[in-house]
Specification:
- The protein contains 16 helices and 30 strands.
- It has an eleven-stranded mixed sheet with strand order 15-16-17-14-18-19-20-24-23-22-21, with helices on both faces. It has a nine-stranded mixed sheet with strand order 2-1-3-4-13-12-11-8-9.
- The chain is globular.
- It has 658 residues and is α/β, with parallel strands linked by helices.
- It comes from Syncephalis pseudoplumigaleata.
- Residues 366-575 form the BPL/LPL catalytic domain.
- Pfam families: BPL_LplA_LipB, BPL_N.
- Belongs to the biotin--protein ligase family.
C-alpha cells in the first residue's frame, strides 16, 4: 500500500524532506512512501492503493488554488469512504472548515476551506514571529500530551514527562475542539489550546497537527543563526526518541502498522559483480579496469561513483548518503571476484539472497530450455543487500553499464527508493524480489518495437510460475499494461467474482543512442511476503490447502532464475517471429478479455476490450451500449500503454498525469 505525500504548489521543500524521512523511518518498508502532485490527486486512480494521504507544511492558500475543485472532492470522498488523512501545519490548516491566520497583518488569511475534516476554525499562528520561507519564527514547543499518547510513550521509551519538545513554525490551534462531536484531542500547546487532534470523517479518519512531530532535530544545524531560540536544536535532539515514539503512536491511531524499532535508513552495501563463467568475469574485469580512474580506482557515473575492488581486498562499507535530495553522488563499492560463481563461492557475501543458489537454479532452468549460450540473460549478476534503486543504478550510470553485457541483472534484497511505473515506488520488504536488467536492441526496420518488451517481462513472470508442473492453476494474471495480479476468491462468498490484487509490477525505461535502444527493465514481485498485498507463496499455500497438494514454495533465487530464463526464450522468439507469436499465451493469462470499461478521456464512453495490437501493444476497445452491444456504426478506440492508467477498482482507463 502507498503513503502519498503531497508535493505541489505551496509545499515547503524542508517540510517535505522531513516528512518523507520520518514516515520511512517509522513505517519501514511495509508501505511505499512516495510523492504525489495535484494533477494526479485530481485525475489519477490513487485511492485504491493509498493507506494514507499526507499534506505537509508550507502555505495553505496555494494548496487551495492547486487542489480546487477536483482533487479536493477526491480527497474528501476518499477519507469519507474509509481513507486516512494526515495534515501537518499548513496541511492541518487546510483540513479545517475555515482558516484564520495572522489576522490584522499583511500575512492575513481568513477564508473557508473545502475539506472541512475539522468542523471548526484553525487559528494561528499560536506564537508571534512567523516569516514565510524562513526558520526565524521557529521554536521548540513543550507539547502537553493527553493520557493516550503519554501512556504510549511510557510503554516505548520508559517513564516520561507529560510533555516533549516538538518543532513549531507558524502552526495553528484547533478552536473549541473539545466541544465538537467526533473530535479527539491528542496533544495541546502549553497554554492548553489543542495542537494535535483526530477526527472521524464518515468511515475514515483525519489527524491534524499544528506542530511538526515529523521534524528530526538531528537534521537541523544548531549553529544556524536564524533560530531565535538558540537552544531549539538541542531541545529537539534531546526528545528525538520520544518524538519518534509519538509519531509511531499517531500512525497507529491511523490504523497503520509501525516498525517495532525506529532506525535510520540503512547504509548502502557493497555491490558484487559476478558471472556464471570465469570468461564472463574476466571480460568484464578487463573492461572496467581500463575504464576506471588510475588515481583513485573509481568510475564516475551520472548518478553514482563506483570504487572498484577485487574480492581479495579489504572492502569498505559504502559511505553513501541515503538522503533523497542530496546533491552529492554516493560512492559505492563494486567488488569483482577472481573467477566464476562456483570457483569463488566462499568469497561471496552471505545474506538473504544467495548468489550460489541463484546460479544453480539458473543452470537447472536453462537446461530445460537450451544449453548455455553466449549472452544468455542472467549469466552476469550485480548483487547488493541494500541499494537506493536497482533501476537507477543501471539507468543513470552509463559510464559503468556500457561495459556490461546484455542480460546483466542488478538484484537487491532491499531498495530504499525503488522506482515503479509513472513515478510510483515499489517497496522491497523481506521476501520480495526486486531486480533490473539491461538490454540493448539495435534500430532495424525488420525488428519489432521495443515498447512491447514490457509485455514480455510480465508474461515471463506469470509463465515462470504457471508453466511449472503442478502450478498451472495458480491464479496469477496479467493486468494491462505491465502489472502482475492475483485473482483471489472469497471462501465466504463462493458466488462472488474473484478479487484482483496486485503482487508485482514492471517498469521499462528506454534511451536511444548510436543506433540502438538501451532498455533498463525493472521488476518487483512479492514472492514470500504477504504484506503489503499478497504473495506468490501465499497463493501456493492456499492452493495446497484447497486441493490437498504439497507444492513447495518458491525462493527468491528460484523465482529470479525462472523469470530471466523465460524472458530470454520469449525475447528471442519475439525478435524472430514478432509479438503475435506470443499473443495466444498472453491472452491465456490476462485479466481483460471481454471486459467493459469506461474511457474517462473519451467522454466517459463505455467500451469493451478486444485485445492488444501485436505491433505496438496498443489496447484495442470498441464502444458499447449499456447492454454491452456494439454501437453502429462501429467505434474503435486504441490506447497507448505508457500514456494511460487502468483503475481496476472502477473499470476506468484515463490519461496518466503527473
Amino acid at each position: 500500500m502507498n503513503i502519498l505525500v503531497y508535493d505541489g504548489p505551496g509545499v515547503s521543500p524542508h517540510c517535505l524532506h522531513q516528512t518523507l524521512r520520518t514516515l520511512r523511518t517509522v513505517l519501514g518498508t511495509r508501505y511505499s512512501v512516495q510523492k504525489v502532485g495535484a494533477a494526479a490527486l485530481g485525475h489519477e486512480p490513487w485511492e485504491p492503493t493509498a493507506a494514507l494521504l499526507v499534506v505537509p507544511g508550507g502555505r495553505d492558500k496555494p494548496y487551495q488554488e492547486a487542489l480546487h475543485p477536483a482533487a479536493n472532492a477526491r480527497i474528501r470522498a476518499y477519507v469519507a469512504a474509509g481513507g486516512r488523512y494526515l495534515g501537518l501545519c499548513a496541511g492541518g490548516y487546510y483540513a479545517g472548515a475555515s482558516v484564520e491566520f495572522e489576522l490584522g497583518t499583511p500575512l492575513e488569511v481568513h477564508e473557508p476551506r473545502e475539506l472541512g475534516f475539522f468542523p471548526g476554525v484553525v487559528r494561528g499562528g499560536v506564537y508571534p514571529g512567523f516569516v514565510y520561507d524562513s526558520e526565524a519564527g521557529a521554536r521548540a514547543v513543550p507539547l502537553q500530551l493527553e493520557p493516550g499518547p503519554r501512556e504510549a510513550l511510557a510503554d516505548t521509551v520508559g517513564p516520561s514527562p507529560s510533555s516533549i519538545h516538538i518543532y513549531y513554525n507558524g502552526g495553528g490551534a484547533f478552536v473549541d475542539a473539545d466541544q465538537l462531536a467526533g473530535v479527539h484531542v491528542l496533544a495541546r500547546y502549553p497554554e492548553g489550546e489543542p495542537a494535535i487532534i483526530m477526527t472521524r470523517v464518515g468511515q475514515g479518519k483525519a489527524l491534524l497537527s499544528g506542530v511538526h512531530p515529523e521534524f528530526d532535530g538531528l537534521l537541523l544545524n544548531e549553529q544556524d543563526p536564524v533560530y531565535a531560540d538558540t537552544a531549539l536544536v538541542a531541545k529537539l535532539r534531546a526528545c528525538n526518541r520520544a518524538r519518534l515514539a509519538l509519531f509511531g503512536h499517531l500512525m497507529r491511531e491511523m490504523d497503520l502498522t509501525v516498525e517495532a524499532e525506529h532506525s535510520a535508513l540503512p547504509p548502502l552495501t557493497p555491490i558484487w559483480l559476478t558471472g556464471y563463467t570465469t570468461a564472463a568475469v574476466d571480460a568484464i574485469k578487463q573492461r572496467l579496469q581500463s575504464a576506471r580512474h588510475a588515481s583513485d580506482r573509481t568510475i564516475e557515473g551520472e548518478h553514482d561513483r563506483f570504487a572498484i575492488y577485487d574480492a581479495q581486498e579489504a572492502i569498505p562499507s559504502s559511505p553513501a548518503s541515503m538522503e533523497e535530495d542530496s546533491d552529492e553522488k554516493p560512492l559505492l563499492s563494486l567488488v569483482l571476484p577472481s573467477s566464476s560463481y562456483s570457483s569463488s563461492a566462499d568469497a561471496m557475501p552471505s545474506g538473504p539472497f544467495s548468489l550460489a543458489a541463484y546460479y544453480k537454479h539458473w543452470q537447472a532452468a536453462r537446461s530445460l530450455v537450451e544449453q548455455l549460450r553466449a549472452g544468455a540473460f542472467g549469466a552476469v549478476v550485480m548483487y547488493s543487500e541494500t541499494v537506493s534503486s536497482t533501476q537507477t543504478l543501471l539507468e543513470k550510470n552509463d559510464a559503468l553499464t556500457r561495459h556490461l553485457p546484455d542480460g546483466t541483472l542488478c538484484v537487491a534484497t532491499r531498495q530504499v527508493s525503488g522506482r515503479g511505473r509513472g513515478g510510483n515506488a515499489w517497496v522491497s520488504p523481506t521476501g520480495s524480489l526486486s531486480f533490473s536488467m539491461i538490454l540493448r536492441q539495435p534500430i532495424n526496420t525488420g525488428l519489432p518495437s521495443p515498447v512491447l518488451v514490457q509485455y514480455l517481462v510480465a508474461l515471463a513472470v506469470v509463465d515462470a510460475v504457471r508453466s511449472k508442473p503442478g502450478y498451472e492453476d495458480m491464479p496469477l494474471r496479467l493486468k494491462w499494461p505491465n502489472d502482475i495480479y492475483a485473482s483471489i476468491a472469497d471462501p465466504a462468498h463462493s458466488d462472488a467474482a474473484p478479487r484482483p490484487v496486485k503482487l508485482g509490477g514492471i517498469l521499462v525505461n528506454s534511451s536511444f543512442q548510436a543506433g540502438q535502444f538501451t532498455l533498463v527493465i525493472g521488476c518487483g514481485v512479492n514472492v514470500d511476503n504477504r504484506a503489503p498485498t499478497t504473495s506468490i507463496n501465499w497463493l501456493v499455500a492456499m492452493h495446497n490447502e484447497a486441493h490437498g497438494t504439497q507444492l513447495a514454495p518458491f525462493t527468491v533465487e528460484e523465482m529470479l532464475a525462472l523469470i530471466v530464463t523465460r524472458l530470454d526464450s520469449f525475447y528471442r522468439q519475439f525478435l524472430q517471429s514478432g509479438f503475435h507469436s506470443l499473443l495466444d499465451l498472453y491472452y491465456q493469462y490476462w485479466l481483460h478479455s471481454g471486459q467493459v470499461v469506461t474511457l474517462a478521456d473519451q467522454g466517459a464512453v463505455r467500451a469493451r476490450i478486444l485485445g492488444i495490437t501485436p505491433d505496438y501493444g496498443l489496447l484495442e476497445t470498441v464502444a458499447v451500449d449499456v447492454n454491452g452491444a456494439e454501437l453502429s456504426p462501429r467505434q474503435l478506440y486504441t490506447l497507448q500503454p505508457d500514456g494511460n492508467s487502468f483503475d481496476m477498482m472502477h473499470n476506468m482507463i484515463s490519461n496518466k498525469r503527473s
